[in-house]
Design goal:
About 65% of the residues lie in helices and about 0% in strands. By secondary structure, the protein is mostly helical. Helix 3 runs antiparallel to helix 4, helix 3 runs antiparallel to helix 15 and helix 16 packs antiparallel against helix 17. The protein starts with 7 loop residues before the first helix and ends in a 29-residue tail after the last helix. The model has no long low-confidence stretch (mean pLDDT about 85).
């Protein structure tokens, strides 16, 4: 059996990691689910993912990875800040979850070979999540688009917020489009993923996901235009369609983008800027500036931070910010040094999407979908393992008669 072949259960482990990062808070569901039950399911999924990855890789063979090394180092400031228990036992629990999450990624790194295997796992698993969102909208349209969220689409079967749904939809749309451009899937299969996901993205009214999709695809397809005629055709048609849509539907697009907000509310990012200013103005000791306050729920004074960099600074200090910045520098630098290819384009899309979303979404310092996106990018940028040559059997030794083994001089 080929050592580099990816077992099917690796996809199952990846799906369990995705289930773990779905979270336990969000909209009210059709059937009320206790938060304790949701947390039990998500944490159980992480434990199962680790045990499955360990069963698949019992000899603990891992690929060298600067990305995973930096994530491992990111545990240090969280543990140091959480050790004094000022943030409560929940901080240490989150550190343990992060450690198990990173350990599972290390075990699965054995199958990171620069191929699109994990891209396919990513698309399949998040498409299943989006199917549950669509099913919830069909079962109970009122619960799926409540007034509490301004009529935006939420998860009615599993508690998912509009930004989460928009993120999942945008990521799999971008990856599916790139697989079509790279001739790694047919248009019909891609359309089955892209079209419903695009509808869900529009219904969520998620600006960050929409901008991340557009910017990420522009950079990714732009990286292929010099070597791919299909990429050049797609890029040309996309620019033409975008220009026409911007002229014809300008008013509708502006209305969708503002979501009924005032110019003042839009300018301060729906109140986010006030939370950010308060967080930066809060007094901190030297230790809290360096190592943070300990892993928490990504909030400040009961309000969501909604910025990955400030959330990391609050919980893991300047040390955490430096390590997260190092993740982007390493992945971005490796992507720029790789020759143009589909794997490189997919990695560029994921890296650029996460970088743009980090401004208005938190999650880069803890187990989250954003770290899974970056893990897929790292798998795409990994060098294929050298093939192990098959052992060549020794040629059969020719039997020499006894009378011919010695020679006599006559």
């Amino acid at each position: 059996m080929d050592e580099r072949r990816t077992p099917g259960l690796v996809g199952t482990a990846w799906g369990l990691l995705i289930l773990n990062t779905l979270g336990s808070t969000g909209a009210e569901t059709v059937v009320p689910l206790p938060r304790s039950l949701i947390q039990m399911v998500t944490m159980g999924a992480l434990v199962l993912a680790f045990l499955l990855a360990l069963a698949l890789n019992p000899r603990l063979r891992v690929r060298p990875s600067a990305f995973l090394f930096l994530l491992t180092l990111l545990l240090v400031p969280g543990v140091i800040a959480s050790a004094d228990l000022e943030s409560g036992l929940g901080a240490l629990f989150r550190c343990g979850r992060m450690a198990l999450f990173v350990a599972t990624l290390w075990l699965l790194s054995r199958w990171w070979d620069g191929g699109v295997t994990f891209v396919r796992h990513h698309i399949r698993m998040y498409f299943v999540v989006l199917c549950s969102v669509a099913a919830g909208a069909l079962v109970s349209p009122g619960a799926a688009m409540p007034d509490l969220y301004g009529g935006r689409l939420v998860g009615a079967l599993w508690p998912l917020t509009p930004p989460q749904i928009g993120q999942y939809a945008a990521v799999i749309i971008g990856l599916a489009v790139l697989l079509v451009v790279g001739h790694r899937t047919d248009r019909r299969s891609a359309a089955l993923v892209v079209v419903p996901s695009l509808v869900l993205l529009v219904l969520t009214h998620t600006r960050t996901a929409t901008l991340g999709l557009l910017v990420g695809l522009t950079l990714a397809i732009g990286s292929l235009t010099l070597t791919s005629a299909a990429a050049r055709r797609f890029f040309s048609w996309a620019v033409l369609c975008a220009a026409v849509a911007a002229v014809v539907f300008a008013a509708a697009l502006r209305s969708w983008f503002l979501r009924g907000q005032s110019e003042e509310n839009f300018s301060n990012l729906t109140g986010r800027a006030k939370v950010w200013d308060a967080l930066l103005a809060a007094p901190r000791t030297t230790g809290e500036k360096v190592f943070g306050m300990g892993l928490g729920d990504k909030s400040f004074d009961g309000l969501p931070i909604d910025n990955s960099w400030l959330a990391v600074y609050h919980e893991q200090g300047l040390t955490g910010v430096t390590l997260v910045a190092g993740v982007f520098v390493v992945l971005g630098g490796v992507a720029l040094l790789r020759p143009p290819s589909l794997a490189r384009a997919c990695a560029i899309f994921l890296i650029s999407y996460c970088a743009l979303a980090s401004y208005t979404e938190a999650g880069l310092g803890d187990a989250s979908p954003y770290l899974l996106h970056l893990a897929v990018a790292a798998s795409l940028l990994a060098q294929p393992a050298a093939a192990t040559p098959l052992p060549v059997p020794d040629p059969p030794r020719r039997r020499v008669p006894r009378w011919a083994r010695t020679s006599e001089v006559t």
